[in-house]
Amino acid sequence: MNIYDFSVPTADGKQQSMEEYKDKIVLIVNTASKCGFTSQYEELQELYETYRDKGVVVLAFPCNQFMKQEPGSNLEIQQFCSLNYGVSFPVFGKINVRGKAAHPLFQYLVEQTPSLLGSGIKWNFTKFLVDRKGLIRKRYAPITSPRKIVGDIELLLKESY
Hints:
Blueprint: E1 7-9, E2 15-17, E3 25-31, H1 40-51, E4 56-62, H2 74-85, H3 104-112, E5 127-130, E6 136-140, H4 150-158
């Protein structure tokens, strides 16, 4: 099993297969517009712009489960990300990332990468780095700056597959 076995909701309410990201290095992030870490969108965009031509993609999954810090509609979230941070990487439809109602992709991500504080996602901007085979290579805490992930991305770029 890998991330390609899942489909996720797009911002316009359709379903998209994660297969679309096959053979890419993927950084999956649960996001929120009204969080203390929201400014990480800027660094995520920088990372995406730097590495997209090398096969790296950032995927944002808005979530309102943490103190209701993502209250907007999918359209409002898209506009917020574009206007405030110039986000050009995919921002999907709002989903749940923890608990019994967690989206199956996030259930899988959590099962594969238990954290020191237990397996569940504790806050917005938890990040998962996935290799070109769709396997989760590393999980990062919300406080981890996207800039600190660059070294791990560089290592994955050097791996043959």
